[in-house]
Design a protein that fits this description.
about 270 residues; alpha+beta; five-stranded mixed sheet; two-stranded antiparallel ribbon; about 10% strand; binds iron/sulfur cluster; binds FE2/S2 (inorganic) cluster
Amino acid sequence: MNLTLRIWRQQNANALGSFVSYQVKDVTAEMSFLEMLDALNENLLSRGEVPVAFDHDCREGICGSCGFLINGVAHGGQRGTTVCQLSMRFFKDGDSLTLEPWRARAFPVIRDLIVNRSAFDRIIQAGGFISAPTGSAPDANAILVPKEAADTSFDAAACIGCGACVAACPNAAAMLFTSAKITHLNTLPQGQPQRDQRTLAMVVAMANEHFGSCTNHGECEAVCPKEIPLEFIGMMNRDLMRAVWRRHREPLVIPGIVQHPFHDHAGTETERS
Ligand code: SF4
Ligand code: FES
């Protein structure tokens, strides 16, 4: 099949970008979308032109490196599918496809279809880590993990950090991603000692990274290649309210949340500065 691609070309974060049209010929149904772009790039290189930059690594839907908009839809619109796993059999001869990078203030364009998603890394970093051996028979004295908790944690851990949820959200919110990362650890018994602290730290980190706020559109869930459910956002919000209610001793600064008077141990009420 032959395709027309309109691809966003931008040299770096500070350069002006624009769409450039390319014809791609002899695409087979067996190719993946990224293999089709490889073929385009080989053609561009043979003509002495600069290839199109796009992120990829595993090409198996595992690493979360790949991702861009195809005709305005993150990862191309096949449910539960990353763009590296997207097959060309879903397209037809003569199709015209527009490819552009994630559009979000928190994800500046590095080049062409590649954006900088290190804001996600900083949110994860803010949450710290826990030690919970996986993949082998537990020691006899290990903390037991209830099956339901293990399943929920595993479902949350499926998030690959691709950023499609942010790109699809009209507010460029990172709530689905952050809620998955929080739920991953907060549902495990090993994650309980720092549950409040982790939730607060990650939500504050998210707010500081210029992501928008959730207004319940659900676009994130619709495009998520790992089908992370909106339910995790509800769980994160419950954990956040619980953490705020319990009020750690140190002052809490959460953008958008009103600070109420603090009750000290003597039962007297004092205003926090
Ligand atoms: S929640 Fe889904 S769409 Fe968002 S980063 Fe994780 S895997 Fe990607
Ligand atoms: S390249 Fe690893 S998920 Fe697509």
